[in-house]
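Board work, copied verbatim: Transposon Tn7 transposition protein TnsD C-termianl domain-containing protein
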Amino acid sequence: MLNFFPNAYPDEDFGSIVYRYFKLSGNPYMMEIMYKLFQVKTVRNRFILPKNLLTLLNNIPGKHSYSLDRIVKEHSYLPLMKPFYTDNEFNNIIEDIGMTKGRIVIGSDQLKHMISNQVRYCPICLLEDYEKFGESYVHRIHQYKFVLVCPNHHTYLISSCPMCQQPFLYHNRRLLGTPYCSNKHYLPSFAKHSLYNSALEKLIHQVADDTKFIIHNEKYIYIELIRQRYLEYALKKGYFSPNGLMQKNKSLIKDFLDSFSIENLEVLGIKINQIHRKFAQIYLNLQGNHYNILIHILLMIYFSGSVSNFLNKKIIDTEPFIPFGRGPWECLNELCSKNKQKSIVVCQRYSFRDVIYGTFKCENCGYTYTRKCNRGTLQNMDGIHVKDKGWLWERKEEEIFKLYESKIQQAQKVNKRNRILDKKIQIPERNSFAWISLLFQVYSNVKSYKETARILRTTEIHVKKILIRHQKKVAPFNKSESVKNIV
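↓ predict structure ↓
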């Protein structure tokens, strides 16, 4: 149990909190502090994406305001990344942050390239924090490499003393607790304000403001919303054809570079080789390695002037041009709590010859189905194909199977056919959950794939396929099944 742990300041970088504890503890060895707090024996890159936070939280004495959720939201760098992860990816990261002895794979590499190696300060924030709290600290928003100015004071950030060039570093224990550098130079006197006099300065300020906007609104931004907005704006700009498919990647790249200029992008840290032939596919569809958040911010600025406008401004006249509409779409799983509700917010579209296919997946139950429309007329075609019934269906189906498992196993050993002649059975809709349940019941009674298929008006292969999903061994198919009538 710790004797104390300092309270956090607004937007304080998590490493700054630990550093203040280190200074107050009187222990001269940072590695010993790290082991005491987190049960780890390294300092390097520990604060970009912290881990074993539950070890710390369980040892903070008395009542305190810290929680895993609060540290992640208010003092880590993850909120800027969260809107671009799926829920499953982000939840896995949170579990690793809470407690892991291994390397956090998801998120760590992306964040490492986004965070400055040297600690950066706003000279005005240094002074204001010292006057308000009695000490200065490291602000999280200032540590992103592409945030070059303080979004609150519009002053350029510094990573070393402009007078003596003394850098501000974690591992050398040179974090500032006052508005003076280690050589006693008064840093607020070096504050340099930006006046928005050039396109570059305007862009630098917009990126800083939009970074702050995402961090403060991450709970309202999610990957499906971003993907949908990209589709709408790309349709409006003509980068997608009327059927919703990518057609002008080269035009997007040219317009993007003309809007910002290569020189200005390089100032922010974007290299020209990052704008390659798969640029639109990766970023507009959020596929593969799309985690360069600066490129997303710049795309949103290009499309709508700011991240806020991009997410909140309604786009008109796009509905008729999008196959299957803009959504949301219904979940068709009869077992799902959101059945027949428009809960699916993502449609993945692809085309083959004259048909466009749309894939819809319910995040609540995993049920996934596809629909088709004509590529020329955009008219929906009949029929829905179920690709995956999802985890909820599989779990419920397994529960029903276990009720009849012993009878089914006995039936497969006997492998005799009990033909039902006079009994009338009401058959539910094919492949519904009630139909699957009836299949287990009928097979356990008639002991025959063929007879089960006849009763349920399906094929022997379909019956066997359903049963084999639940068993490692299925009795071999015997075409010469005997016939036995039952009254």
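Confidence is low (pLDDT under 50) at residues 473-487.
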